[in-house]
Amino acid sequence: MPIAGENIVKPVKGMKYFPEVALAGGSAPFQHSIDDVVLESMCRNIIEDLSDYGLCVLDNFLGFEEGNRVMAEVLNIKGTGALRDGQLVSTRGKAKEDLKTIRSDKICWVHGKEPDCEHIGYLIGRVDTLITRANRMFNNGKLGQYNINGRTKAMVACYPGSGAHYVKHVDNPNRDGRCITAIYYLNRNWDVDQYGGLLRIFPEGWREDKVADIEPLFDRLLFFWSDRRNPHEVQPAFATRYAITLWYFDAAEREEAVRRYDKERLALEKSTSSST
């Protein structure tokens, strides 16, 4: 199981320490388990919808039985006490209670290879397959602007009801390398009118009065651009709400972000040593 103390995202000068995973060259894991025609169709949907709308929704992604197995593993993670308060890119000058007014979810990072995470690993492999294949297809629209060769570990998130929320924000406002956000929802029989928890996206280029309202329905997979094109918020949830999120990196932007961080870190170390 994930170790709670190792799962907290630590903010440093506008950069995040992401638990990163390299994507294997060639075919992604579990590709053999997806019918090629179905895979092609899903990839085309992702390519076209991201290019046209900046987001894409795929329902009934794993099927009811496999989705339930993933949910059981998430509940097991929660039961171990591994979930911790979600963090922000920058927490300078903010008290813990102030942070909870911004985001009030509980999270941990999962590789998918831990004991009792087999089905989460299967989900991750399926999403990897879609992203890597779509990124390498011909005529792949705006997705072709990126070279995706890595991602974060999976972030398991729980909004524990009682109005838990995440205010309007951008996942990657500072070119940290993340280009695509992928969210898988695990909420059976979710009624957004009763339970809230809506994800509202404000896509760049849409009419000012137009938003994308995404209900966090069981076995739904959502993709959207991670940068400033898609500010979004999680509206207050009044029942426990679960999701698993992956962020995929553009190789060049991530390399530049790491180089920038290393330069800042060295400058800080030099400044600290000279002042002592």
TrEMBL record:
Top-level taxon of the source organism: Eukaryota
Cellular component, GO annotation: nucleus
InterPro entries: HIF_prolyl_hydroxylases (IPR051559), Oxoglu/Fe-dep_dioxygenase_dom (IPR005123), Pro_4_hyd_alph (IPR006620), Pro_4_hyd_alph_FE2OG_OXY (IPR044862)
Location relative to the cell: Nucleus
UniProt keyword list: Dioxygenase, Iron, Metal-binding, Nucleus, Oxidoreductase, Vitamin C
Cofactor annotation: L-ascorbate
Catalytic reaction(s) noted: L-prolyl-[hypoxia-inducible factor alpha subunit] + 2-oxoglutarate + O2 = trans-4-hydroxy-L-prolyl-[hypoxia-inducible factor alpha subunit] + succinate + CO2
Source organism (scientific name): Dendroctonus ponderosae (Mountain pine beetle)
Chief subcellular location: nucleus
Gene Ontology molecular function: any one: L-ascorbic acid binding
Lineage, highest ranks first: Eukaryota, Metazoa, Ecdysozoa, Arthropoda, Hexapoda
Nucleotide-binding in keyword set: no
Keyword Disulfide bond among UniProt keywords: no
Domain Fe2OG dioxygenase: 150-250
Swiss-Prot/TrEMBL GO biological process terms: cellular response to hypoxia
Annotated Gene3D superfamilies: q2cbj1_9rhob like domain (2.60.120.620)
The protein's name in its UniProt record: hypoxia-inducible factor-proline dioxygenase
Family matches, as PROSITE patterns: FE2OG_OXY
E.C. numbers: 1.14.11.29
